[in-house]
């Protein structure tokens, strides 16, 4: 069910003709307007690929990547801004994300979102493309809901907290306070403080240093492609190597000349590998 009518214009950076929609999602004892965009919904016989953004991401921050990947793969796409991001309902200023926020997003929010838009994940298991925090959420969702996910592509996901991650997040905090980072994020988020401090505060919470999801991954039954750049400033190859240790069917893609965002640094290589992976495993 949509609580707001679709907008007539595509968000900046997305392909023209993709209306922005809002799902009315009941979750965590609250109701939220969740922004989302559909790519090629007319391809009803093809898999649905759901894009889960990074810790500072949104629908618009993906630019044209979801459209390009869905066109190359010949599939449908769904791009959403999680609660607190993009044009979705903002996080209340006094509220901080709990340490298990990614578990909650994976186990509770995603099922509530799919229900709100009327997508039956048993009859039509979606594929998930997750980046960074979104990759972790995708992994957790597949582990918690086996049989309801067709496959995973996770780019720069986090399994555990590394010193390099915390150092980069602290650097981002300094930049948000002292540079024009806030105004840049305001291009993509209705409430940039909601997006930034929600992400930054929980990652720099001392209790978050013990966050680790690796042991949960053995429950994943679907195909997995895990992608990491050799120059990732937010994590090392230990992250996707950890996926391979727990998920025997996982395939790894390690990219040269690539930082934390493979879809920006190596889009052609990433799309080529993702399309080949989906074609091998989709039914």
What do you see in this structure?
It contains nine helices and nine strands. It is of the alpha/beta class. It has one domain (2-281): Rossmann fold. The chain has helices spanning 65-73, 101-117, 133-144, 163-178, 181-185, 192-203, 238-246, 262-265, 267-281, and strands at 2-4, 20-27, 30-39, 48-52, 76-80, 127-131, 151-155, 224-229, 251-255.
Secondary structure layout plus pairing:
Layout: E1 2-4, E2 20-27, E3 30-39, E4 48-52, H1 65-73, E5 76-80, H2 101-117, E6 127-131, H3 133-144, E7 151-155, H4 163-178, H5 181-185, H6 192-203, E8 224-229, H7 238-246, E9 251-255, H8 262-265, H9 267-281
Parallel strand pairs: 4-5, 4-6, 6-7, 7-8, 8-9
Antiparallel strand pairs: 1-2, 2-3, 3-5
Helix pairs in contact: 1-9, 2-3
Keywords:
single chain, 283 residues, alpha/beta, Rossmann fold, nine-stranded mixed beta sheet, 9 strands, 35% helix, 18% strand, disordered N terminus
Question: In summary, what is this structure?
Answer:
This protein is α/β, with parallel strands linked by helices. Helix content is 35%, strand content 18%.
Number of strands: 9
**CATH topology value:** Rossmann fold
- The value of Rg in angstroms is 17 Å
The number of distinct structural domains comes to 1
Distance between the termini: 29 Å
Shape: globular
Binned, the helix content reads 25-40%
Provide the CATH superfamily. Alpha/Beta hydrolase fold, catalytic domain
Task: Give, in spatial order, the strands making up the sheet with the most strands.
Answer: 1-2-3-5-4-6-7-8-9
Low-confidence stretches: 1-9
CATH class: Alpha Beta
């Amino acid at each position: 069910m949509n609580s707001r009518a679709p907008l007539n214009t595509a968000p900046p950076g997305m392909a023209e003709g993709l209306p922005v929609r809002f799902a009315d999602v009941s979750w965590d004892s609250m109701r939220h307007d969740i922004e989302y965009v559909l790519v090629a919904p007319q391809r009803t016989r093809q898999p649905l690929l759901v894009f889960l953004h990074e810790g500072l991401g949104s629908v618009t921050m993906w630019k044209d990547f979801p459209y390009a990947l869905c066109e190359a793969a010949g599939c449908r796409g769904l791009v959403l801004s999680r609660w607190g991001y993009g044009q979705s309902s903002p996080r209340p200023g006094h509220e901080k994300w709990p340490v298990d926020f990614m578990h909650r997003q994976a186990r509770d929010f995603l099922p509530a979102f799919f229900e709100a838009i009327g997508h039956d994940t048993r009859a039509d298991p979606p594929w998930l493309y997750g980046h960074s925090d979104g990759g972790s959420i995708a992994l957790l969702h597949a582990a918690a809901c086996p049989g309801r996910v067709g496959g995973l592509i996770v780019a720069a996901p986090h399994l555990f907290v590394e010193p390099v991650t915390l150092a980069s997040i602290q650097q981002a905090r300094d930049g948000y306070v002292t540079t024009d980072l806030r105004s840049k994020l305001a291009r993509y988020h209705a409430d940039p403080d909601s997006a930034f401090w929600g992400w930054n505060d929980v990652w720099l919470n001392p209790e978050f240093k013990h966050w680790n999801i690796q042991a949960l991954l053995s429950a994943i039954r679907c195909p997995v492609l895990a992608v990491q750049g050799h120059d990732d400033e937010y994590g090392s190859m230990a992250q996707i190597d950890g996926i391979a240790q727990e998920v025997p069917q996982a395939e790894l893609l390690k990219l040269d000349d690539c930082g934390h965002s493979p879809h920006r640094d190596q889009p052609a290589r990433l799309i080529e590998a993702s399309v080949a992976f989906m074609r091998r495993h989709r039914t």
